[in-house]
Specification:
The complex is a heterodimer.
Chain A: E1 9-13, E2 18-23, E3 32-38, E4 45-50, E5 55-56, E6 61-64, E7 70-75, E8 84-91, E9 103-108
Parallel strand pairs in A: 1-9
Antiparallel strand pairs in A: 2-7, 3-4, 3-8, 5-6, 6-7, 8-9
Chain B: E1 5-7, E2 10-13, E3 19-24, E4 31-38, E5 42-50, E6 53-57, E7 64-68, E8 74-78, E9 87-94, E10 104-105, E11 109-113
Parallel strand pairs in B: 2-11
Antiparallel strand pairs in B: 1-3, 3-8, 4-5, 4-9, 5-6, 7-8, 9-10, 9-11
The chains are: A mainly beta, B mainly beta.
């Protein structure tokens, strides 16, 4: 199973953009890059996913490097409600997510 | 539409007992997967079911088992409970469990073994 590497923690000021990096140097051609976040006392929540091209949705943007060995989740304007643990996961055809330790995002008012 | 429902939300059991947890997926979703979350090990995959068939299983002992019914509802069972089984058990549902779809997680069942 391909692994991802993320910083343990990051801080951001409220209403500023946040760039959460993820390294996945062993990614295979069929692996999709998924991001989930987990707020305290809740189950993980889907954020975004992509294969090769950059992706945007109402929550965030996903920028994928050309060689696909890294990606960045972009929250355009962080709010206090975005404080959570963010997981970058590679998902292929094996029907399971392999969660790493994630990045704990702290948003400062 | 209704989200993923897990019951019960909280459970306290004694070592040696068994427990059954339930997960009702989002209507129309046929894939249900289960995860265990502990402070030490993080989120770990238990198993995944699709149309009543187990398609993948994580590295857990045989005391952990599951099944899926024809209406896609799923149950997981843990027999001969150990203290180390205390955890948050999460289930996730998706349309088909494939790589290009999103999964929706329930709020989990918090199991405490004493």
């Amino acid at each position: 199973d391909a692994k991802t590497t993320q910083p343990n923690s990051m801080e951001s000021n409220e209403e500023e953009p946040v760039h959460l990096p993820c390294n996945h140097s062993t990614i295979s051609g069929t692996d999709y890059i998924h991001w989930y976040r987990q707020l305290p006392s809740q189950g993980p929540e889907y954020v975004i996913h992509g294969l090769t091209s950059n992706v945007n949705n109402r929550m965030a943007s996903l920028a994928i490097a050309e060689d696909r060995k890294s990606s960045t989740l972009i929250l355009h304007r962080a709010t206090l409600r975005d404080a959570a643990v963010y997981y970058c996961i590679l998902f292929s055809g094996t029907y399971k997510y392999i969660f790493g330790t994630g990045t704990r995002l702290k948003v400062l008012a | 539409k209704a989200g993923v429902t897990q019951t019960p939300r909280y459970l306290i059991k004694t070592r040696g007992q068994q427990v059954t947890l339930s997960c009702s997926p989002i209507s129309g979703h046929r894939s249900v997967s289960w995860y265990q979350q502990t402070p030490g090990q993080g989120l770990q995959f238990l198993f995944e079911y699709f149309s009543e068939t187990q398609r993948n299983k994580g590295n857990f002992p045989g005391r952990f088992s599951g099944r899926q019914f024809s209406n896609s509802r799923s149950e997981m069972n843990v027999s001969t409970l150990e203290l180390g089984d205390s955890a948050l058990y999460l289930c996730a549902s998706s349309l088909e469990g494939t790589a290009n779809t999103e999964a929706f997680f329930g709020q989990g069942t918090r199991l405490t073994v004493v």
